[in-house]
Amino acid sequence: MLAVAVGLVGGAALMAVYGYDFVKAYRALFLGAFGDFSGFLETLAFATPLIMTGLTFAIGMRSGLFNIGAEGQMYMGAIGAVFVGGMLNLPPIIHLIFATVFGMLAGAIWSLPAALLKISRGVHEVVSTIMLNWIAFWLVTYLITYHVADPARAERAVPAQETARYLVIGASLTTVFILVIAFSLIAYFLLWRTTLGYELRVVGHNQEAARYAGINISKTMMTSFFLGGLAAGLAGVSQVLGRPPHWTVFATMGNLINIGFEGIGVALVGRNHPIGIIFASIFYGGLLHGGRFMEFEAGVASEIVRAINGIIILALAIPAALDLVKKIFPRKNRGETG
Amino acid sequence: MCMNRKALTRTESILAVLLVVAIIAGAVGWTQPGQRIVETVTSTVTVGGSAQTITTTRVVTSTVTVERPISPGAIKIAVVSDIGGRGDLSFNDMAFKGGDEAEKDLGVQMVELISKTEADYVPNLETAARDPDVKLIVGVGFLLSEALLEVAAKYPDKNFAGIDTFTQALAVQKTGKPLPNMLDIVYEEHKGSAMVGALGCLLAAHYNELGGNYPYIGGVFGIEIPVLWKFEIGYKWGCDWGLKWYEQRFGKRAPLIGEDGRYGSGPNWRDGLYCPQAGQCWYKGRVLWTYTGTFSDITKGYAAAKSMYEQQAIAVYNIAGPLGLGINQAVQEIATEKRLTSGPPYWIGVDANQDWINPGFVIASMMKRVDRGVYYAALLTVIGKFKEVVADTNGVLVLGIGTKVGNLAMEGISVSTLADLDEFIKMGVDAEKLTGKKVLPMSPEEIRQKVTEMRQNLPSWIWDALTELESKIRSGQAQVPMVLTKEEVDRWRELLG
């Protein structure tokens, strides 16, 4: 709560400096994002992919990995969804399922090089995932430009066919949101209710102890990367098969870019907990959607809106980020983690 | 282990509580917005001495704004940018400029919404549409076509306009008929391109008269999409028209560019002209052209333009947005090397008046007046003719040279003149204020002086030719081909190179 207050005051100070009416602006922000039903649905639509990329980071953290590859894995998920959803003709429900699964697997497979490098050569995942992100970016840009471009519209890939689209609930929200929530709940039960999840978390707490206890660390890391990749893949899928009105990826990647990195902030705010991440994502989605009301009703320049959102998220993420720093540079024995 | 178990139960109990809340919320009818309580606020606002009573019905859960300015200026128009946003000195800035002018002339109020990603289009349009004072929502750029279709169909009592959009085509595809409240505003770029094509080739003729060696003009294009074919063929057709005009006016072929044998030889070639049928000859191959495949990679614009200038192209037309900066760089290199203060070589600007970017080296710009489009949409809304015009035009308003709506002249294409240079210098000044970066290459006075000098150094017959072409386009005597299909573009490339 203190963090929220600090973030809001920081944003207000910024607006005051530029001479905007911050009370009116905040009012517009919150009422726009949460004040009515269709606004709230739009907020959820913005939250949907963040829940998944946040989960990618969180699963990594829980098993002691600093996996920042969600961005690239999400691109692969999206292009996977384009391949099946846009290029193939299949019967209705089967098409949707096949496109979703294919996209998720594409994301998961993209996480494997980092996992293998880590296990076999000890390459740090920060280095490998960052590099893989860029490879994915240019690979997908290339594929969209030269292989899956919409023949009528060179600036984007072929849109998902009607048979491969999630149903629109309202505003820009589709039923893919339900799948995303289900995936989060499954991830939660997997992490806290199964042996696999237990092993994963033990490796995250203390690798040496885990090894001593006879846990197969390589296998656990592999699993962690793979699960994270599935989540990131689904984030990409959700933007293609579950986001009107375009149902596709632009060659500039404009509708995907940064969703993976924003997931890191969301995961930190949600304390790397699948359920916490859902709420953090909805909050962040509210900032993304509500921001336009600050612009529209209080006239706040769009750059300032982005800065305010950044300040709020930063303030919320700092506590968790400090924990992270402590974890990476252990000085003293910690009691417990949330 | 103990710790874990504790954390477990806590999370799960939170989950359980949330589930219950969700079920209750669902049961209460949160999912049915129609069931919410509605309250009526009656307020009296005095404006300019006269009292007006307004009654607003608002939903309790959203903002209850009691005081609203009620005046003729209460009509709001919203302009939603594409991801280029403010400060592009071209498309989006032009649209906002049109909104500013509508504010000044028509007393409307403009609200801006900048789209940061493609996912912002629909919510931005919808945010604007839901404001009861907003009567017109303008989406800038063809990327907003789908989003406009979705939102315009949802808010039938609001007017929607799109610059370069094809929303009505999508609507016809989907429902079989155009939307009654949506106006796609498109431009006759082929006519403007013909004008600058003629300018380019006459420029070559003039400098060749003075002993120059300029056999070509050039064009740097972006991604090969059908819209760009309009520019390409228009430009080539304009060059041909210009050289034919020269022939008539001076009774001889234009030196070098009109008569040389380098452009081709063979059965259909006669003295540097391509004559597939008797009595019908074309100045083929005078235009060097490259599709760079990008609208953003400035270095590709530089590379393409550089090779054109190496082949002695006198001017290169920028049809790839920011790649113009690459063309400018190629020109500037030559200028620095040869210590030139003015062209040739020149380049030709597009969309906005780009003559100020490198004064003395930009011979002219093919202006596509996005600002006029926004302005006309606002005007039609204010005078209450918007839907009428939509019905008359099937929802597609074409702005070009000599275009009209009823008796109102509504034009949107022109070749830049000295008169409109000032407006665009002001845009540069504004952008400097906005970004804090240096935009203008020199002071506004110096720009004006250099551009004026450059234009006055050209013989008046060049400008006469352009005036004649413009009036012939207006009267319909000159028909610039508008190419939209692959077959047509292939046919014209066969004739013009």
UniProtKB/TrEMBL annotation, chain B:
Q: Name one Pfam family in it.
A: Bmp
Where does this chain mainly localize? membrane
Record has Signal as a keyword: yes
Top-rank taxon of the source lineage equals Archaea
The protein's matches in InterPro entries, at most eight in alphabetical order, are given as: BMP_lipoprotein, PnrA-like
The record's section on Gene3D superfamilies has:
3.40.50.2300
Q: Where is the ABC transporter substrate-binding protein PnrA-like domain?
A: 78-238, 287-379
Q: Which UniProt keywords apply?
A: Cell membrane, Lipoprotein, Membrane, Signal
CDD domains assigned to the protein according to its UniProt record, in alphabetical order: PBP1_PrnA-like
Query: Which Gene Ontology terms of cellular component type are present?
Result: plasma membrane
Q: Report the locations given in the UniProt record.
A: Cell membrane
Q: What is this protein called?
A: BMP family ABC transporter substrate-binding protein
